[in-house]
Specification:
The chain is an alpha/beta fold. The chain folds into two domains: 300 residues, TIM Barrel; 143 residues, no CATH class. It is built from eleven helices and 23 strands. The longest helix is centred in the middle third of the chain and has 16 residues. About 3% of the residues have low confidence.
Length: 453
């Protein structure tokens, strides 16, 4: 399988913004020349043929910054416009904490400015937000079903980790916004995360060892970032190329670069060099599709089922750290992470349904206790027509779904399951010679048998 790779760029524009949900977020500001930053970023993106997803808030809804003309022009050229529900002003007659009233006000202001809305951005979406969106006219407010930025994994913002939500686009449950929609509910809300992260670094220790494809993040020396732009760019390009390899495992892989206009001229970083290098790197990806979020939403709605399985196999891309191999697997029910240096069993195992739904919270999912699960033996035999794998596992209790990674099968990307014992539910071949096994375990001794062809 050789899936599609979509390369996107998001640019939050506003001079003032909230970190987090407006009910409990922190409002902060930068005094940059926003118009100059927008024009520089637009020029860099156009140089590389890259559409931009512009993220705007009430300063642009009411044209306080005088940028409405630019965004209308950019949108006619194929760019995407996302709006925020975090109001930095206090318009008369609008309760800033009433999601339905805020979205109706935003819709009216954008109509007046001649801006077509493609989706809604927030660092947090609560269950009550999704309930309010369902009360709005489904045609006029169809854009409120396209969500972005829900999972900003940064302590101090939402106090969560990468395990708080799926790694790539997913359909959110209206009853538990951090959980994918289950089989018995409609898939109305399509959420796109706004940053791509280094899975290996995350599994090894989490924040602050977790960098993103945001020049401001990669250069955050106070949070374990890189000391200079050339190293930060080298890391970012390595991460882009490693993420692009995931097309061998998934039908669609989204790589998003983010840089805020309000940061562009601050912090002493050479953002022109960073963005120019990252945009140029996309040209090295075979058959890459440079798109804005508008097209991503359309493509995923046309082609992705809510319960799609996805798997990512990534090497360490930070040359300062030992070489490791990590696996992230997810479906609509759970998310499992593995790190080669930690053995065959998961170092992370999260059940999306474990968090109590409907309590309007962005609490992280509880991690399942895997104490008492041991790999007793693993036997791999290569034959002329395939590979036989036998794994013995001792478990103190039963598991309906548990993931196991065999690092030594050395299967190719094209391998498929020819036969298996009844307790083997699924097998997926990974990159770099590993196989992911989804199994059902009983309490006691378990024998997993597979024939790979």
């Amino acid at each position: 399988m050789q899936g599609d790779v979509f390369f996107t760029y998001t640019c939050p524009v506003s001079r003032k913004t909230y970190a987090g949900h407006p009910r409990n977020g922190y409002l902060y500001a930068h005094e940059n020349d926003i118009e100059e930053a927008v024009n520089i970023i637009h020029g860099l993106a156009r140089k590389h043929g890259q559409p931009v997803t512009w993220v705007i808030n009430d300063q642009e809804y009411t044209n306080q910054e005088g940028l409405a003309y630019y965004f209308k022009t950019f949108q006619s050229e194929g760019d995407t416009i996302l709006v925020t529900m975090e109001l930095t002003t206090s318009p008369s007659g609008v309760d800033k904490y009433d999601t339905k009233a805020v979205l109706e006000w935003v819709n009216a202001r954008c109509k007046e400015a001649g801006l077509r809305i493609d989706g809604l951005w927030s660092l947090k979406f609560l269950e009550s937000d999704l309930a309010a969106m369902q009360q709005l006219d489904s045609d006029e407010f169809a854009w409120t079903r396209n969500l972005a930025g829900s999972c900003w994994h940064q302590q101090g913002i939402d106090d969560s980790t990468w395990c708080g939500c799926p790694f790539n686009p997913y359909y959110a449950s209206a009853h538990n916004v951090r959980m994918p929609a289950q089989d018995d509910e409609p898939a109305d809300f399509l959420v796109l995360e706004w940053l791509s992260r280094d899975i290996t670094a995350i599994l090894k220790g989490g924040f602050p060892a977790t960098f993103s494809l945001d020049p401001a993040d990669t250069n955050r020396k106070d949070q374990g970032g890189f000391g200079n732009e050339p190293d930060a760019l080298k890391y970012s390009i390595a991460l882009i190329m490693e993420l692009a390899r995931q097309r061998a495992l998934n039908p669609r892989t989204v790589i998003n670069v983010n840089e805020e206009a309000r940061h562009f001229q601050s912090e002493g970083h050479d953002k022109v060099m960073m963005l120019d290098g990252m945009f140029g790197c996309a040209s090295q990806i075979e058959n890459v599709k440079r798109v804005g979020y508008r097209d991503i939403y359309r493509i995923f709605r046309e082609s992705q089922a809510p319960d799609d399985e996805r798997m990512y196999v990534c090497r360490s891309v930070d040359w300062r750290a030992p070489e490791d191999l990590s696996v992230l697997y997810e479906d609509s029910h759970g998310q499992m992470g593995f790190l080669k240096s930690h053995g065959a069993l998961p170092v992370e195992f999260y059940n999306y349904a474990a968090r109590h739904p409907g309590n309007d919270s962005n609490d992280s999912y509880p991690q399942e206790d895997l104490t008492g699960v041991r790999v007793v033996s693993e036997n791999v035999k290569k034959k002329s027509d395939g590979i036989d794998v036998q794994i013995q596992i001792e478990s103190d209790r039963a598991f309906d779904d548990i993931g196991i990674v065999s690092w030594d099968v050395d299967a190719k990307d094209s391998v498929h399951l020819a036969a298996a014992s009844a307790n083997v539910k699924a097998v997926k071949a990974g990159l770099d010679g590993c196989v992911f096994i989804k199994a059902r375990l009983i309490a006691g001794r378990n024998q997993l048998q597979m024939e790979l062809a």
